[in-house]
Description:
This protein is of the alpha/beta class. The chain contains twelve helices and 13 strands.
Amino acid sequence: MNPPAAPHADAPMPPVAEPLLHIDGLHLWMRSFEGEAHVLAGVDLRVQRGEVWGLVGETGCGKSLTGLSVSRLVATPPGRYGQGRIVFDGQDLLRLDEAQVRPLRGRRIGMIFQDPTTNLNPLFRIGEQLVDVALAAGAHSPEILGLAPGASRGERRAAARELAARMLERVRIPDARARLDDHPHQFSGGMRQRVLIAMALIGRPDLLIADEPTTALDVSVQAQILALLKDMVAEYRMAVLLITHNLGVVAQTCSHVAVMYAGTIVERGPVRAVLSAPRHPYTRALLKALPTRATARGTLEGIPGVVPDLVRPPAGCRYAPRCARASEGCLRTAPELASAAGAHEVACYHPHSLASA
Ligand SMILES: Nc1ncnc2c1ncn2[C@@H]1O[C@H](COP(=O)(O)OP(=O)(O)O)[C@@H](O)[C@H]1O
Ligand SMILES: [Mg+2]
């Protein structure tokens, strides 16, 4: 028998731990007036605990539908899933029925969406709504309330109210304790959004899906909320999918970034690598398109050209019709994500080289 091979410089890397979330080649069609639009075309993303992934791209590229898919909030119809899986902690979420999804949603998978008016119940006090979430989380994970098992109902309520007040303080609601007894209409839109952020974080979800969570907030509160998010990731090893069109937010908050174009991930990897040396022509265009006035805010303004019709999408690379580097092959077959440098991956037959960075 041969002796085992000696370790070698090009030996394969040890396998990476199974990610908490693996969106594995996900396809989604949405029915519309013009026909069925192929809105997610093989979206692939792996998110480990402790990672904050930014998902960026122009309006309409499929960021929200990706987040809503993980939360299993895309109605079918009008949606229809094709190939692909959404594996969360070893389970394919797409195979679960609503009764199996409900205990995951909100508890293990927290969500913050853009529009704060839709998510708070106008009839109940802010404090009651937070306490309900804290009690539900505490029933499942008693350590969240900091109580020993067997604590009385009154002790649990008091601990939940205390936790609610502390979370409101952490999202910078002034005079938080007194404001627990207010109703949502007594809060401004920005404050309601902060309440929803507190509500999503109070149960310490394993995964947080945040779709433009701070877009409605002013810059200083936004910075505080993003700092809180980073603290929570460090404290609880949470994983985050942060959907944003703001590259400043990505640079400030994310460990990784994925760039979407027309329902596909065109580039992904560690945030520094992707932002400092983008390889995909689309990522380049996106970063270059930042108009000077908006650069400070890091806002994506979009780039010239027309996003493809997703009812009749291009056969090959979806960016090819807009791409100065496209060749015949690009129009025929879509490129797959492949490593450009370590974990920095790009789906392009003609990526920019590091030298031209
Ligand atoms: N409920 C829906 N019915 C039909 N088409 C939809 C629906 N929601 C989104 N879409 C389409 O899917 C595409 C992706 O949308 P979305 O995920 O909201 O993009 P983003 O969040 O990146 O702006 C867009 O072309 C949009 O028009
Ligand atoms: Mg969106």
